[in-house]
Amino acid sequence: MNVITVDWSGGNQFPYGQAVANTVIVAAVIRQLLQAIINVGAQPQQMHLIGHSLGAHISSYVGRDLPNLGRISGLDPAGPDFYVSLIPDRLDHSDALFVDVIHTDGAPRVHSGFGHLEPLGHVDFYPNGGSAQPTCGSNTGAVLLQSAWSLISTFNVANAADTFACNHMSAVYYYTDSINTPSPAFAYPCSDYKSFEQGLCTSCGSSPNQCQRIGYHASPSKALGTLYLMTLHGVKPPHLGFHFRVTLESDMNDNEQQTRGIIKVKFDEQEEDASLFDQNTLLKRGSINSKTILIANKPKTLKKINISFKKSLGFSLGIGLADQWNFRSVIVLDMQSNSSYKFCPTSNSPMIKSGSNLTYKLC
Fold first, then answer.
1. Confidence class of residue 13 from pLDDT cuts 50, 70 and 90?
2. pTM for this structure?
3. Among 129, 161, 248, 254, whose Cα sits 20 to 30 Å from the Cα of 200?
4. Which UniProt keywords apply (predicted)?
């Protein structure tokens, strides 16, 4: 494998409008180089362009005039100035035989996202919904811009750059992590990210073999379209992990009517627990609540799990909410293998008191 990197940092500076204009020139130079390589025997079908931000659109311009280009990977393609562009002026699935896109800082046109939110390729990956990444906080666009400007005004330029581009750069980190990750890094077709979080989208079709992998190992023979996945919350790799759907079945026969609270699950052999539901989730007698979670390491065996519960006080100070709760069973679906496991409480007193936890074993 031969790797060619393109450094156009001299033309990729402020003002942004000039950088956008320079993309056409950079693309022409790259296309000229690739054509020269093709003229001496290289196959365009075996060429793979990877571009971040404006670089994704540069790759588009190259592919537009280079027939049968094999693949383009667009890493959070730039959004500003490209929402109103015609298809020939931005990345599109027609620019190569296979175009895969990772969205990490997208926002609707009326907001200040640095990436492009709309689908652009044969397959479009939306980690954590495609806008706010967990290691960057929940703010995007204008709020991050204000924070960055605050740092610049105090001459903290380096930290300003990190703040300004955190979500936008996440696509690069995820793609890099995908090359050698021990995780399959599967993504799943779904109507929207909220539905994916709620555990409503757990399969890739008739066979797990159709599941698409984000990043380097993405394939045109796997599931295409709009796909969703989660990433881990650590700043350092790994960013990619293993998806599970956890379903909690509340008991029907308890006198307790409802409660709210923070609920976490910990798999056997796992060092850290994973958050299932926050303090805003209302649990009712007989209710069934599901959530998709991500863990860094897949358990070798699934024989027991641990559920913890902490009652929410909130604005009502917990009035009318039970101080303990009983889950009659917990069902865990391994979304990679589509294997399901049912767990039941090991205690004769299955109530989980606020601030405590309970072990469940296979049943």
1. confident
2. 0.91
3. 254
4. Secreted
